[in-house]
From TrEMBL:
Its EC number is 5.3.1.1. GO terms for molecular function: triose-phosphate isomerase activity. Gene3D superfamilies: Aldolase class I. Belongs to the triosephosphate isomerase family. Pathway: Carbohydrate biosynthesis; gluconeogenesis; Carbohydrate degradation; glycolysis; D-glyceraldehyde 3-phosphate from glycerone phosphate: step 1/1. Keywords: Gluconeogenesis, Glycolysis, Isomerase. GO terms for biological process: gluconeogenesis; glyceraldehyde-3-phosphate biosynthetic process; glycerol catabolic process; glycolytic process. It catalyses: D-glyceraldehyde 3-phosphate = dihydroxyacetone phosphate. PANTHER family: TRIOSEPHOSPHATE ISOMERASE. Pfam families: TIM. This is Triosephosphate isomerase. Homodimer.
Length: 267
């Protein structure tokens, strides 16, 4: 948690929306009071980028969920950063754990995508992940530092990059990462940036956590020293996303409880 890093929440819709659902989400997000101290983004399927941009309020940015490593050409099914920008959207998610594990995107390809995206000026949410096998077999550090090293080699302008760490073993598995486990992973990544890039980049780069973030666990996690926000999947389709965007805003009910107690401690 640092004053110099603006809290950041991306709600990643994955392949779970159509126009009617985008309208529904846009409606409850527009009606909500969102913390102005949070940078809020949604991750949208490519065919709905322009539609989502038109439906959402201006203060919510739109990200594509993937893109290719060149501006144009004969690459059926792909989209480029230039096309995302041309659709009025400012962000792209690269190396999402589902791209890495289901679609077998290797570090090298993700690095090439990041390098090209950086040349276009689009802003990037660059993802890393740890699977349950990585964790069980004790190779967490090797895997995370390997992915980070590959990403970092492609990044020239860190001001346009947010890093997202996903504990895949805690994403829709029924297992939740504890606050201590989340802090440990994020602190290791920040330490890696300090040791291998610079103090400035380590101090200024936002590092997000992903893995079943919901309205029930976001407030505790939002207080962690090295956590600067969340990449949210399933809860992004529900009004939970509003609570997650507001995770650092003082909770009015707890303030009332606080003032109710004669000793001034929280009830
Ligand atoms: P989840 O997904 O919040 O449903 O675990 C996060 C993500 O993979 O983007």
């Amino acid at each position: 948690m640092s004053g110099q890093r603006k809290f950041f929440v991306i709600g990643n819709w994955k392949m779970n929306v159509d126009k009617a659902r985008i309208d529904h989400i846009a409606k409850f997000m527009s009606a909500a009071s969102l913390d102005p101290n949070t940078e809020a983004v949604v991750g949208c399927p490519s065919c709905y980028l322009s539609y989502a941009r038109q439906r959402l309020p201006d203060e919510i940015a739109v990200a594509a969920q993937n893109c290719y490593k060149v501006a144009h050409g004969n690459f059926s099914g792909e989209i480029s950063p230039a096309m995302i920008l041309d659709s009025g959207c400012e962000w792209v998610i690269l190396g999402h754990p589902e791209r890495r594990t289901i679609f077998k995107e290797p570090d090298q390809l993700i690095a090439e995508k990041v390098a090209h995206a950086q040349q276009t000026g689009i802003k990037i949410i660059a993802c890393l992940c740890e699977t349950s096998e990585d964790r069980e077999e004790g190779r967490t550090d090797d895997v995370l530092f390997g992915q980070m090293k590959s990403l970092a080699a492609s990044i020239s302008d860190w001001s346009r990059v947010v890093i997202a760490f996903e504990a895949l073993w805690a994403s829709n598995t029924g297992v939740l990462a504890t606050a201590a486990q989340v802090q440990e992973a994020l602190a290791k990544l920040r330490h890696w940036l300090r040791a291998n890039v610079s103090d400035k980049v380590a101090n200024s780069t936002r590092i997000l956590y992903a893995g079943s973030v919901s309205s029930s666990n976001c407030r505790e996690l939002a207080q962690l020293e090295d956590l600067d926000g969340f990449l949210v999947g399933s809860a992004a389709l529900r009004p939970d996303i509003v609570d997650i965007i507001n995770a650092r805003r003082p909770d009015v009910s707890s303030l009332i409880a606080h003032f109710d107690r004669p000793d001034g401690r929280r009830a």
